[in-house]
Amino acid sequence: MGELIATRDAFGSALIACGGENKDIVVLDADLAKATMSVRFKEAYPERFFDVGIAEGDLIDTAAGLSMTGRIPFACTFAVFAAGRAFEQIRNSVAYPRLNVKICGSHGGVQVGKDGATHQAIEDLAIMSAIPNMVVLNPGDAVEMEAAVKAMVEYDGPVYVRLGRNPVPVVFDRETYQFEIGRGTVVREGGDVTLIATGCLLDVAVKAADILLQEGISAEIINIATIKPLDREIITKSVKKTGKAVVMEEGIIVGGLGSAVAAALSETCPVPMAFIGMDDTFGQSGDAADLMKYYHMTAGDTVMKVKGLL
Amino acid sequence: MGNIGELQTKAKEIRKLVIRSIGQARSGHPGGSLSCADLIVALYFDIMDIDPGNPRWEDRDRFVLSKGHACPALYAALALKGYFPVEELDHLRELGSMLQGHPYSGKTPGVDVSTGSLGQGLSIANGIALGGRLDHKDYYVYCLLGDGEIEEGQVWEAAMTGAHYGLDHVIGFVDYNHLQIDGTIEEVIGNGRIEEKFQAFGWRTMTIDGHDMEEILNAVAKAKKTQGLPTCIIMNTVKGKGVSFMENQAGWHGTAPTKEQVELALKELEGN
Lengths: 310, 272
Prior knowledge:
Family (chain B): Belongs to the transketolase family.
CATH superfamily of chain B: Thiamin diphosphate (ThDP)-binding fold, Pyr/PP domains
Oligomer: heterodimer
Structural class of chain A: alpha/beta
Helix content of chain A: 40-55%
Order of helices and strands of chain B: HHHEHHEHEEEHHEHEH
Shape of chain A: globular
Number of helices of chain A: 13
Strand order of the largest sheet of chain A: 3-2-4-5-7-6-12
Pfam families (chain B): Transketolase_N (PF00456)
Largest interface: A-B, 29 and 34 residues
Strand order of the largest sheet of chain B: 1-2-3-7-6
Order of helices and strands of chain A: EHEHHEHEHHEHEHEEEEHEEHEHEHH
Keywords (chain B): Thiamine pyrophosphate
Domain Transketolase N-terminal (chain B): 10-265
Protein name (chain B): Transketolase
Shape of chain B: globular
CATH class of the largest domain in chain A: Alpha Beta
């Protein structure tokens, strides 16, 4: 660990790499190409890049049309506009007919920072998870994002992926990491509690586990990059061993990973649980780190939650 | 160009099937299905290059019924064209039917695009045309919009995109029957000057009588000669066209006729 890379950065690089190999890939944006990093694809393959202007509904449906001609469109904008403004285009014109459209929502979570609540997507994962046929991805670091983009190209069907704005530590080893849609990963083994983290909270979980270890508490860390379909097996297996779980996400708990894990474990192995995430509240302007503290999404908060379960 | 008389006969047949299927389903949208029936006949029985034996043929012309609620007319045309047996029309809107309440590409052979939520079809048509251009294909994408439907802002997003990318293989139609659910277009939101609006967005435009087969065919032929910009054909139509008690009545937007009304309507259409 050490290198800091934003997942949107990794996304931009992966688009170019995949676009070079696969000429069916086309990329669309709604006037945010420089922020979503789709601009890199535009520079590399201008004939396969389409900007529709500030028009997210049009973005999704133009992508839907392109997919009907055998293209693999990646439609990029901010997560709050993709999952929010274009929700119904995604539901009715993409997910229902199960079109091969990849919806890429950048600037997920509150770490967008000073732009404030209007631009902080905290419900995107929950909203997208609610749509039948939709695969929902939230990679935790640059390595996982690159692998996820490749997997999205290979997967035939609608996918939503959340990209992060800020640099986050690289957790996975590029040489050995194997990504598969629908599969979670045991990042660290432990016996006392299971930390189930998604997206950039993976790094928070790693830091929390380090603190816990110093206090003699052994935490198992499971990374969930695929919110839907959820890897119930890996979660169940872990909590059968540890008997406790803390679910961690940078977003609202209701309808997000917290709800999904609680629903799964209530059927397979009910255990005491706690949740890190936005508790039915909007974000606000502020520095990313301050916001994570304010909304109790730090390693310290995670340690407190774990202790509350012991 | 085909025989105008034959096309008119086909339109009458489609109208009868629309009435029968909606009556049988006891649910559906007769008014707007009848107003666009002539265009749908012109497209499916003359204009479009399609192969019912190979609905996914990649060089085919595409049709996007953006006003998806008018699908009884589309379904009737697809059945008569041989995409599926005409008997399927008796199962419109039934549980498990291939004929859903709004067009669904996942179930109905010949339905290119799933629609139903208004305002989305023109964007989809643009996307298909962009893909066709990348493939160096020559197919056309026809997109039918409702006059009420163009109150949706996304239609104008798509109008910008179509003009910006010079999509001359997109040909749009507005079924201008002047009625929407809550009343006349003029009463509800005063959505007028449609031709000028599309022109201002950079489209070539034409206004025609949407029930005159010859005018429809001529307009499309002209539109296909246009290079570098998309065309929108505004069709003056009558909602409920062909059934006297349905004509120009907003109430027949989404109401199914009773058995007696079906009989009455069919008799009238026979006599026409």
